[in-house]
Amino acid sequence: MKYRQFGNTGLRVSEIGVGCGGLGGERKMGLEPALERAMDLGVNFFDTCDTYAESRSEQTLGRVFLNHPRDRFVVCTKFGGVIENDEWRRDISVRHLHEAFAASCRRLNVDYFDIYLVHTPPRDILAHGDLIEALGRMVEQGKIRTFGLSVEQGDFATEFVSASPGRAIEIAFSLFAQDPRNGFLEVARKLGVGVICKSPMRNGVLTDSFRPDPAPGDRRLKSLGPERHARMAALWRQVQPILTAGGRTMAQGALAWLLSFPQVSTVIPGVVSLERIEETAAASDRPMSADELAALDAAAGGALVGARVD
Ligand SMILES: NC(=O)c1ccc[n+]([C@@H]2O[C@H](COP(=O)([O-])OP(=O)(O)OC[C@H]3O[C@@H](n4cnc5c(N)ncnc54)[C@H](OP(=O)(O)O)[C@@H]3O)[C@@H](O)[C@H]2O)c1
């Protein structure tokens, strides 16, 4: 496993992290051995959120963290909402921030977070000066090392890091969602911002489990709908031979492509199983050649560069 600096924060993170969305929920139970295997393989970056799987994601991670010294792992968690009557409701009040911090510390069995992110932030987040100030004080008090946002769009991330001391951005970035290339990555480099790539395989489309010719009941065909699925399948066919060159799996290729950007700190494929942790962790040792990178930029007549496939 290779490691990178997380912007100018002094944090050192594994190139491959683990996304713990859904961990502890119905489809993702009993994955503690997979998380232990990730630790064995040198993964030190774990992304979670206080509301993932009704807090069971943090609880599961907390059980695993008990087996390891605190300096062995980097905790990235999020706050910003509460679940009431099965509905997520935003709450970014300073009072909720402090309550959420204390509750996440208890579940994760830690007394500080390396990275604290606002989950699904409102577009006017910078107008919430009291929240930004409170997060800044938490940094001074040693409760968190840095803070930031989890977002979809590069311009939102750019706006935030340009006007706040937060130095962490989790952003949707993959070969099929390239918006961060349109300016944000350059700003992140200049300002020393750590960049976490969420949904790095475009929610599983950029993997060998995607079926370009799906059977009628195919799960992704249902969730994407026939038109979106067909658009993605056409592009998938074009990039698949390049991503899998040299014996890489498709997921490894998708991650290696992201790691070709020096501004990227870590990528967080969603946790599924021990075998898939082994597969994705190995991507750190299978970088892409300059020719492969150029071929991916040229695929589909260059239409993927900077664009979102939808
Ligand atoms: N803050 C936010 O708003 C937000 C939003 C989205 C994601 N995230 C973070 O990003 C993480 C990852 O995002 P994601 O799960 O949406 O997308 P992803 O990592 O791009 O895709 C994960 C899916 O890919 C498939 N897959 C195939 N091979 C795999 C392999 N070797 N390793 C892992 N998955 C493989 C699995 O689906 P099948 O089993 O169906 O094949 C899996 O569920 C989340 O866990 C979360 O931490 C945050």
Question: Would you mind describing this structure in some detail?
Answer:
- The model has no long low-confidence stretch (mean pLDDT 97).
- The protein is globular, with a radius of gyration of 19 Å.
- 46% of the residues are buried.
- An eight-stranded parallel beta sheet has the order 3-4-5-8-9-10-11-12, covered by helices on one side. Strands 1-2 form a two-stranded antiparallel ribbon. The protein has a two-stranded antiparallel ribbon with strand order 6-7.
- Helix 1 (32-40) packs parallel to helix 10 (274-281), helix 2 packs across helix 3 (94-108) and helix 5 runs parallel beside helix 6 (184-191).
- The protein has a single domain (3-209, 250-293), classed as TIM Barrel (Alpha-Beta Barrel), CATH 3.20.20.100.
- Helix content is 37%, strand content 16%.
- The two termini are 32 Å apart.
- With 310 residues, the protein is α/β, with parallel strands linked by helices.
- NADP nicotinamide-adenine-dinucleotide phosphate is lined by residues 19-21, 47, 119, 150, 198-204, 207, 209, 251, 268-270, 272, 276, 279-280.
Q: What are the main properties of this structure?
A:
310 residues; binds NADP nicotinamide-adenine-dinucleotide phosphate; globular; alpha/beta; TIM Barrel
